[in-house]
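Dear Dr. H.,

I hope your travels went smoothly. While you were away I took the liberty of generating a structure for the chain from your last submission, since the lab meeting agenda had it listed for discussion. I wanted you to have the full record in hand beforehand rather than looking at slides cold. The sequence, exactly as received, is reproduced here:
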Amino acid sequence: MMNTMCNNFKKTVLLCTTLVFILGFAPLTMQGQVSPSPLFGLVEFMKTTPGNEGNYVELELNTWKKLHQARIDKGLIVGWYLYKVHYTASDDPYNYVTVTLFSDKNKLENPWADIDPAEVLGDIDVDKVFEETMKTRKMVGSNLMNRMEFVFPEGGPGDFKYLQLDYMKVKQGHDSEYYNTEVEVWKPIHNEFIKAGSRVGWSLWGRVFPSGYGLDFQYVTVNYFSNFAQIGTANYNDATSKAHPNEDVSKLMEQTNNSRLLVKSELWEVIDRVMANQ
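The corresponding predicted structure, in token form, is as follows:
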């Protein structure tokens, strides 16, 4: 009976994740561009049910985190994050996000391989965990993202606390123009921001699935902050003049605006995480 319960549990958990592979792993957004360190992020958007936000967070921290740690121990994933989305209202589509990180896209085919929830959770009732999870939140969507570029201080962004995500929409056929603008214009500027201490990292992610130019965005840039006080402190004029001393700033801004549409920005706070090699 317990084996049946665990198998049903795993099948349900796998549903949203394995759909990414079953429906077809889309090609990388930028053909021919390979990240120095391959990294894929399964981003799942959660909306907590009224009165259950605290219960949802407790389940993630005290129960699901153990399962993600077990996946890390088996080499299935390299990390998992729980984020709270700030400045949301009751009618916004989501207020929490989980991100599961993979260093090998092939691991997406069976990301819960050989994980026995009953073995990991011990005396905890597995069916009750799933039932309570479904009561506390609804998963309203998911994206598979591929990290294309990044700038971090030596050793990575470290113990960052906040992320600012900027969602970018590009016109069909203009991916190269956008990518080149991010890499040639903005990557050096973000490097100057890091040197100045106004952030602890920057990365560019391409949307792998779902894909298409009819969607609301195709790319996301992420700014990493160690604390709330860092947000909004970047000196753009100073960083731009240092990164591009011989360039006309107005032309760089025109190039940027012509390459993409900034759809929206969000602020995420790290609630908890588990990472390989911590």
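Two observations you may find useful: Helices lie at 2-22, 53-73, 117-121, 126-136, 175-196, 236-243, 249-259. The chain has two domains: 2-144, 147-269.

With kind regards,
E. W.
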